[in-house]
Write a structure and sequence with these properties.
The complex is a heterodimer of chains A (121) and B (334). Chain A has 121 residues and is mainly α. Chain A is built from four helices and no strands. Chain A has helices spanning 11-34, 41-44, 64-87, 89-117. Chain A is flat and about 70 Å long. Chain B has 334 residues and is mainly α. Chain B has one domain. Chain B has helices at residues 2-39, 55-64, 76-92, 111-133, 136-167, 172-178, 187-190, 192-205, 217-220, 230-254, 263-268, 277-298, 304-332. Classes of the chains: A mainly alpha (121), B mainly alpha (334). Chains A and B meet through helix 1, helix 2, helix 3 and helix 4 of A and helix 1, helix 3, helix 4, helix 5 and helix 10 of B.
Chain lengths: 121, 334
């Protein structure tokens, strides 16, 4: 078909993904025919060290996890910028080197601020 | 027609890789129990088959025949989906690993990045598992686990930037070939700081001791796995071991020279070239697997706040510094 682009390099990756998913689903379905099924209420209740579950299971948790999540986004983007820079390092010369240091310096200011504010505790 | 042939070949290759990996995973559990048993003055599994060699299969069959308990309160579609996400994403990252020269399912030029992407997808599985179980232990375990994995992924990613600087590529095969003329034929010598950061992060990424807090029995029962049983539990277990193998493979490929031998060795002893590359690769991978078990038998577990402090306050600055110094050395001294 004209105009249809098939990224052949990624075809095996797609096949791996499909087969991996099929494997996971497959063994679960296969197990369905083999395993016993004798449910009763106590067995199906949520585990809470043998007590009857108290209150909402989705409790509130510390806001720090959100901060960690946001920090992760910042640093992950940093890493994504670092990779192409590292790969093409030989070609981009001195300007490329100092640009990255400048970028890192900006990140560093934020990082030190976070540390001071106790976001990393 | 040509496309069909490519697809057929890939399907076959993938099936072989999966089968071999699953066999290795089965015996990794045996290997682990033997090693830890010996280190603790026990003998490990001996009953099933000759010297307990059939133990992994007994375990597999047993978990296949176990009742699958789905709590009433659980969010069923998500509860079903979580193990599938984890296993599928972990198995997909096997696609880019070169087991020998030109021996990867897909020789992507963004190899390492792809493994990171898949590792990030597995985090969704963990979060979904914790949330859908609708249990306090599972929920807190899931949140903690996700926080741990994403924190160490950064340190790991930045520590590898040093390797990319040295190799000038993200492709795992190129990285292996770039190491042949390095001291000892491995980046682990010149990139020793990055190597140490990477290894520590690898332990945290795969939830292994001393960073196995998501499964810290003493405080959170089994973390996000609390409500899982039978083969669904086995799938998480499987994913954990496959990702241990992937981390070991990454260490072998990026720092220990992968399937290649150091240049000086093949020049001195040319007959070593006749040994298939996969032998060296597996030797390196198993050396690292042994290290995993050794550490598990030796070190106690960290507290969660200590874990986060190590990741954010030590490993990340060290990794960034290592990268800047590598870049500087490469710019002016090489």
């Amino acid at each position: 078909m004209p105009g249809t682009y098939i990224p052949v390099n990624y075809l095996p990756v797609f096949i791996t993904l499909v087969l991996g998913t099929l494997f996971a689903v497959g063994v679960l379905v296969l197990g369905e025919f083999l395993r016993p099924r004798r449910p009763y209420d106590e067995k199906l209740s949520i585990y809470e060290s043998g007590n009857v579950p108290v209150g909402e299971p989705r409790t509130r948790f510390t806001v720090r996890f959100y901060v960690i999540g946001m920090l992760f986004v910042v640093f992950d983007v940093e890493a994504v910028f670092l990779y192409p820079w590292a790969v093409s390092f030989g070609a981009i010369g001195l300007l490329g080197f100092w640009s990255m240091l400048f970028f890192l310096a900006i990140i560093l200011v934020g990082y030190l601020y976070d540390w001071k504010k106790g976001a990393l505790e | 027609m040509e496309l069909l042939l490519t697809i057929g070949k890939s399907v076959l290759f993938v099936a072989v890789v999966f089968a071999v990996t699953l066999l290795h995973v089965a015996y990794a559990t045996y290997f682990e129990r033997k090693v830890i048993g010996r280190m603790q003055g026990r003998i490990g599994p001996v009953e099933v088959g000759f010297r307990g060699l059939l133990q992994p299969f007994a375990d597999m069959v047993k978990s296949l025949f176990k009742e699958d308990i789905i709590p009433n309160e659980a969010d069923r579609p998500l509860f079903f989906l979580a193990p599938v996400i984890v296993v599928a994403s972990v198995m997909t990252s096997l696609a880019v690993i070169p087991f020998f020269n030109n021996g990867s399912i897909a020789n992507l030029n963004v190899g390492v990045l792809f493994i990171f992407a898949m590792a990030s997808l597995a985090v969704y599985g963990i979060i979904v598992a914790g949330w859908s179980s609708n249990s306090k232990y599972a929920f807190l375990g899931g949140v903690r686990s996700a926080a741990q994995v994403i924190s160490y992924e950064i340190a790991m990613g930045i520590s590898l930037a040093g390797v990319f600087l040295m190799a000038g590529s993200l492709n795992l095969s190129d990285i292996v070939l770039a190491q042949r003329e390095q001291p000892m034929g491995m980046f682990a010598v010149v990139q020793v700081v990055g190597f140490v950061v990477f290894v520590i992060s690898a332990f945290a990424e795969t939830n292994r001791t001393p960073f196995d807090l998501p499964e810290a029995e003493t405080e959170l029962v089994a973390g996000y796995l609390t409500e899982y049983s039978g083969f669904r539990y086995a799938l998480f277990f499987l994913a954990e071991y496959i990702s241990m193998y992937i981390m070991a493979a990454l260490v072998a490929l990026c720092y220990l020279g992968g399937w290649a031998l150091p240049g000086f060795l093949t020049r001195a002893l040319p007959f070593l070239e006749l040994v298939p590359g996969i032998v060296w690769f597996l030797l390196k991978v198993y050396a690292f697997m042994f290290f995993y078990f050794w550490v598990r038998a030796t070190l106690p577990r960290y507290r969660f706040d200590q874990l986060m402090a190590i990741g954010w306050k030590i490993l990340i600055p060290v990794a960034v510094l290592n990268m800047v110094i590598t870049a500087g050395v490469k710019r002016w001294l090489m």
